[in-house]
């Protein structure tokens, strides 16, 4: 199958444990760097400085540890040679920049994912202010379900779709910052599903999707297709990540809403 074949699995774990460990270590260490920056006084734009420092750190470490691999980063110009590369790291050095710039908020993240020949192969999402790093290195079944069906949605631009879903499913909506934070909240049992529509890129979801799938969560795009990575256009505007127990109900609701909208 070609790298863009829709039949290819979204996640096929690399058999090299060093790749999983590297993703985990890079996300975690970049998070430590960001925490240190956050405590420094005098920054007029800490989010921009965080993006820059974290990106420089991750690029330097990948160049040293995986010099033959390509990189797609939110904070760097897109090197189109990645499209011919066998291995591509997809990184978001600071996901949830607004939350990073607000004192006391923990819903920001560092995303590090590895794509190999058509599928995600490793990933890590660090939540530095919460002291947590989730990755494909050490996996476990999802935590118990929340007592009430809960949908995680964008804090700054919640899509109208989530309101329609909540009404249809009698669910509550929990606003949150970073895409990684929302996806890991589903994994940890704070929420039942994370649903997004209205604009994202590959670096926003690659690591969260890899980690979610490695831990047994369900993933799809709103139209039912699988998300694909290392594409010529890195735009990937919608996503749903769901706990297995809620998947059938949520997928049916998404399909019903799509059918209604198409009439």
Describe the fold and architecture.
The chain has 263 residues and is of the alpha/beta class. 37% of the residues lie in helices and 21% in strands. The chain has 7 helices and 10 strands. It has a 5-stranded mixed β-sheet, sandwiched between helices. Strands 7-6-8-10-9 form a 5-stranded mixed β-sheet, with helices on both faces. The mean pLDDT is 93.
For this entry, give a set of tags.
about 260 residues, alpha/beta, Fructose-1,6-Bisphosphatase, Chain A, domain 1, D-Maltodextrin-Binding Protein, domain 2, 2 domains, 5-stranded mixed β-sheet, 7 helices
Task: Give the CATH superfamily of the largest domain.
Answer: Fructose-1,6-Bisphosphatase, subunit A, domain 1
Residue share in β-strands: 15-25%
Q: Just give the CATH class of the largest domain.
A: Alpha Beta
Structural class by helix and strand composition = alpha/beta
Instruction: Assign the CATH topology of the largest domain.
Output: Fructose-1,6-Bisphosphatase, Chain A, domain 1
Rough outline = globular
Q: Could you describe the largest sheet, including whether it forms a barrel?
A: 5 strands, mixed
Radius of gyration: 18 Å
Strand arrangement across the biggest beta sheet: 1-2-3-4-5
CATH architecture of the largest domain: 2-Layer Sandwich
Low-confidence parts, pLDDT < 50 over ≥5 residues?
none
Total domain units: 2
Number of helices: 7
What's the helical proportion of residues?
25-40%
What is the mean predicted local confidence, pLDDT?
Answer: 93
Distance between the termini: 35 Å
- Element order, helices and strands? HHEEHEEEEHEHEHEEH
The number of strands is 10
Binding site for Mg(2+): 74, 92, 94-95, 204
Protein name: 3'(2'),5'-bisphosphate nucleotidase CysQ
GO molecular function, one term: metal ion binding
InterPro entries: CysQ/Inositol_MonoPase, Inositol_monophosphatase-like
